[in-house]
Specification:
The complex is a heterodimer. By secondary structure, chain A is an all-beta fold. In chain A, 0% of the residues lie in helices and 53% in strands. In chain B, β9 and β10 form a beta hairpin. Classes of the chains: A mainly beta, B mainly beta.
Chain lengths: 117, 107
């Protein structure tokens, strides 16, 4: 069972970035996924949730209207489209699988996003 | 939003010590609580789910208890590999929220 994030990097304020999380070792289409971020030296912040079908989505107020979670069950991948990026979005972004009860396990290794001019 | 408050924020302990970390929810969350361990530069690992269920592969020296608004994580006999930061998380309702973390350091 493995989750691998990609797509992070340096972006200017106001810019956009698309993160990917590619899964392997399990039946991707039967699980829920979440994105969680961690600013440098800070704690964990839940960002977004997507249901098995992709029809139910929840996002934190801090990213609502700017970030969009999606999934492609044919590619075993979940995505986070980030736009109108701000300095405070600088963080390592983790994807996490949710099993029954929405327990987050496992997590990917994370991808770092830096928003700076 | 449900606020999760952990205490202490940091604790120093020695190998072999018993350590307890507390997590308090701002409203009742039944048993919808998880505990994670995070080491520097790594992703969090699930230790405890449903407040008291031990995740597969996690040593039995870790245990969780509580329901409603008060929860505890106990490490019965600290091992060198246990020095890390611990987070609680509620999955009772959106937005899911984490405690601020408890850093467990070597005395």
């Amino acid at each position: 069972v493995q989750l691998v994030e990609s797509g992070g990097g340096l972006v200017q304020p106001g810019g956009s970035l698309r993160l990917s999380c590619t899964a392997s070792g399990f039946n991707f289409s039967t699980y829920i996924f979440n994105w969680v971020r961690q600013a440098p030296g800070k704690g964990l912040e839940w960002v977004s949730y997507i249901s098995i079908t992709g029809r139910t989505i929840y996002s934190a107020d801090s990213v609502k209207g700017r970030f969009t979670i999606s999934r492609d069950n044919t590619k075993n991948s979940v995505f986070l489209q980030m736009s109108s990026l701000r300095d405070e979005d600088t963080a390592t972004y983790f994807c996490a699988r949710s099993n029954n009860g929405n327990w987050f396990d496992p997590w990917g290794q994370g991808t770092r996003v830096t928003v700076s001019s | 939003d449900i606020q999760m408050t952990q205490s202490p924020s940091s604790v120093s302990a020695s190998v072999g010590d018993r350590v307890t970390i507390t997590c308090r929810a701002s409203q009742g969350i039944s048993s919808w609580l998880a505990w994670f361990q995070q080491k520097p530069g790594k992703a969090p690992d699930l230790l405890i789910y449903a407040a008291s269920s031990l995740q597969s592969g996690v040593p039995p020296r870790f245990s969780g208890s509580g329901s409603g608004t008060g929860f505890t994580l106990t490490i019965s006999s600290l091992q060198p590999e246990d020095f890390a930061t611990y987070y609680c998380q509620q999955v009772h309702s959106f937005p899911y929220t984490f405690g601020q973390g408890t850093k467990l350091e070597i005395k």
